[in-house]
Amino acid sequence: MKKTYLLSCLLLLVTGMQAQQKYDPKETEYYTPVPRIVNPGNLPGQPPSDAIILLGGNDLSEWVNDNDKAGPAEWLLEKGVMTVNKKTGDIRTKRNFTDFQLHLEYRIPENITGSGQARGNSGLFLASLQVKEGAGGYELQILDNYQNDTYVNGQAGSIYKQYPPLVNACKPPGQWQTYDVIWIAPRFNADGSLKTAATLTAFHNGVLVQNNALLKGDTPYTGPPAYRPHGPAPIKLQSHGDKSEPISFQNIWVREL
Ligand code: MG
Could you tell me the distance, in angstroms and rounded to a whole number, from the CA of residue 238 to the centre of ligand 1? Predict the structure, then answer.
């Protein structure tokens, strides 16, 4: 028994030495292409140097109304804080995106009322798609689920009606909260069929809530998810029709991948 063990050790040692002789460590090291230098920003909410700022100053110039006319976004803006205007509807970015990293901060009003889905409902649509039935796309839910229950695949951090968040990382109303997401858009074949599904990774207040989730399609309120072919698309923020007090946003930036 002891002999066999010693023999095995010796064999391992010899094999290891042979491997060391066979390979040069340099063979598994490479130097190009050199990753671009990006200044990561030091303060909370400060975007990295290569980010496109979607909301950070005193204008809504990156946004339009998400209707057919695509007029100016008419949400309220004060000192860099944008508040949903429930009368004017959803807003979407002027630019189109495919794959990206996105950072967003939102705040549920401290005096929020309502319950279930009717309490601070909004949403981050990773791609806004105009479909016959109205505004479509892929929604990462925004909702106040701090001590507020609803169907779990519709709570904050869920991919709406597809996947609940891995955990409930909601902060109490009145505090700023963050989403950091990595979105890889779906790809389609020339005949319109799905080539590769979309994936979403999301951190809510720094906590992983979606881990490379494979989307089953879009995220409708009614009916099963489905894929419809599309290319680069705007990002959308939802103005939900519930009666609760409107939520606010600040520091939204995106890095194209
Ligand atoms: Mg919503």
Answer: 6
How would you classify the pairing of strands 194-196 and 134-142? unpaired
Whether 246 is covered by a domain: the verdict is yes
Examine residue 174 and state whether it is found in any structural domain, yes or no: yes
CA diameter of the chain = 83
Ligand 1 centre distance from Cα of residue 139 (Å): 7
Distance 240 CA to ligand 1 centre (A): 6
Rounded distance from Cα 35 to ligand 1 centre (Å)? 37
Q: What's the CA-to-centroid distance between 169 and ligand 1, angstroms? A: 17
Peptide bond into 25 cis (omega under 30): no
> Is residue 20 in a domain?
no
| 33 CA from centroid of ligand 1 (Å) | 41
Q: List the CATH number of the domain containing 198.
A: 2.60.120.560
* Unique residue bearing structure tokens 């508040």: 83
Helix (H) or strand (E) holding 58: none
Q: How far does residue 239's CA lie from ligand 1's centre (Å)?
A: 8
Write the CA distances from 96 to 28, 212, 219, 234, integer angstroms.
Answer: 38, 22, 19, 4
In a domain, 14, yes or no: no
Number of domains into which the chain is organized: 1
* Per-position pLDDT tens, the chain of length 257: 566 666 665 566 566 666 667 899 989 888 898 888 888 776 666 899 999 999 998 899 999 999 877 899 999 999 999 999 999 999 999 999 999 999 999 999 999 999 999 999 999 999 998 765 555 899 999 999 999 999 999 999 999 999 999 999 999 999 999 999 999 999 999 999 999 999 999 999 999 999 999 999 999 999 999 999 999 999 999 999 888 999 999 999 999 99
What is the extent of the structural domain holding 186? 50-256
Q: What residues sit around ligand 1, an ion, with C-beta below 5 angstroms? A: 121, 123, 238
